[in-house]
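Page 42, continued from yesterday. The earlier attempt failed because a stray header line got pasted into the input along with the sequence. Redoing it now with the clean sequence only.
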Amino acid sequence: MPVSHHSHSGQFCKHAAGTLEEVVLEAIRQGFRTYGLTEHVPRHRLDDLYPEEEGMSLDSLKSQFDAFLTEAHRLKEKYADQITLLVGLETEYITETDLTALESLLSEHGKRIEYIVGSVHHVAGIPIDFDRPTFDKALASFSSTTNPDPMAAFLNAYFDAQYTLMQRVQPEVIGHLDLCRLYNPTLRFCDYPDALARIRRNVRYAVEYGALFELNAAAFRKGWDAAYPAEDVVEIIRENAGRFTLSDDSHGPHAVGLNYSRLVEYARRVGIDELWVLAPSSVTDGSNLGRRGLAAHRVPGQWWEDPFWQGKAQT
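This time it went through. Structure tokens are written below.
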């Protein structure tokens, strides 16, 4: 089933490229049947702006997100006979203010926001996926004379933030679950028992309320030989009967479907025989999914045999 639940465009995200419509047209050209549009929610402190956003105001970030929703729904209607577009958002959790504001945003827009990709990009208020020096700064913030292992404390803080986010808004899709090891792809959580226990807790909670876990192809373009999450976390999700979906996490039309040939190979290698997709439905699957208008549906048959994947083998 050709699907992605997570994407960005340069029109509404300064570190991406292209317009939202260009992203949609590329997804159509490649043969995607379902494609999720999920720009970042606004941030609420000027200190949290990225360098490329210098000079933007907090009001302009809010206006930019509102404009995204309007454009996304316009495209959803315009191309309805060619592709199913889902309109969602990707979270930020930097301080408590972000979660309170997100709850207000969800209330304000109602079902115009059809689903949430729940992601954490900051630890101790510092971005962890911007570049290596900034990641190192976040890690160093946990160094102290009373803390012999800053990495352990860093990982614990990341997964605690993820858990808080899930409890507050119950995102339909868990975004790049193990982004915390972006710059340490060989790190294994079995070496950090407290972090491992937190992962198990988070996975169990997400499974209980019905979330889908994305296999995110962006890890390949970051130099990994696996998707997010890596195989050790995939195994935990499988042990808990978690449900997987796919995301390209594209940041412009050039990255739509990027590394999807590797993604299907990875999914097959780690034993993922079922995929799930969000779809408009008034009937839920018994989980909390569906409260925003979408429900999880299992992709029928052997998903990897879809002709879409045969084309991806050539790219």
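Notes: Residues 3-312 form a domain with the TIM Barrel fold (CATH 3.20.20.140).
Reminder to self: strip header lines before submitting.
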